[in-house]
Amino acid sequence: MGNAPLTSRTIAAYGEVMMRLSVPGGELLTQADTLRYSFSGTGVNVLAMLARFGHNTKLVTSLPANPQGDAAIGYVRKLGIGTTYVRRAGSHVGMYFLEAGFGPRPSRVTYAGRQDSSFNTAPEGAYDAEALAGENEVLHLCGISLAMNDGVRRQMKTLAKAFKSAGRSVVFDCNYRPVLWGEDGYSRARPHYAELLALADVVLMNERDATQLLGMSSAQVQPRERLVELIPAVADAYGIRTIAGTMRGVNEDYTHTLQGFICKSGNFSFSRKLTFPVYDRIGAGDAFAAGIVHGELQGFSPATTVEFAAASAMLAHTYAGDISLASEADILRTMSKPAGDVER
User: Fold this and answer.
1) Mean pLDDT of all residues in the chain?
2) Is the whole model's pTM more than 0.85, yes or no?
């Protein structure tokens, strides 16, 4: 039942929990003498927002049975995410260092210790795919996890097949990261992406994923024209019900622009083009994805869903940290009145 609508409010996400070590202000690692830590990961970020929207969320991951793992568990629980499916094993949590950009200088992320983390060394069979599919209506998967290693890839495919067989819904965010796949990454990643796309009901991607990841071609010059040509072709080729994504830009004054799109049954809806300053860039794509999933769960029209998701992504840029703190009411208010003064 790959085309069944997302009607449940019970959502599981499979993914790594990472420790984020942020350099204060706009300093570089070579300048700073302190770091601020928090925990994140695509699954954590998406589930945290969906929990704020009122959904029942569960994280599927592995964390070490030590103080580092305890801190991560406590952080995830404070976000309203269920930890029933968190496996305690392995030795440590993967980390990344964030140097925040400013003006023309982009932010920089440096990963550390990911391949040996509890999540990335979990053995096959660490998670009961059949039980997960029986207890949850929606599964969220991310391409960042797909880049890790063959064991993680097999687990992702096992989970997706179990949910598909049970008539559940699978959400897959392509989230291709060149630095994680390395040399000849697109050709190495392509068969894995193709297999997961064929199991997905809702996909987050853009026209670059279609051309570079999937090897599709288009004679169109403009990104939006390529998008309109290629995205329906991807949906048809892989049997995907909904595809959504964003088109982004950076202006001369270093504000950002963002426009969301959603394609269902070959029909596109585009959000307004939003322009805004950026406080923290990391996690905005996850806020967009959460908005799309929420719109599908609530039965919003495609036009409302993509406006909601775009506003969600915009607000995510205004909070420190990977995880947006916007509520559904915050986002709906922003949709009707994008700029706000002090609330009294």
Assistant:
1) 91
2) yes
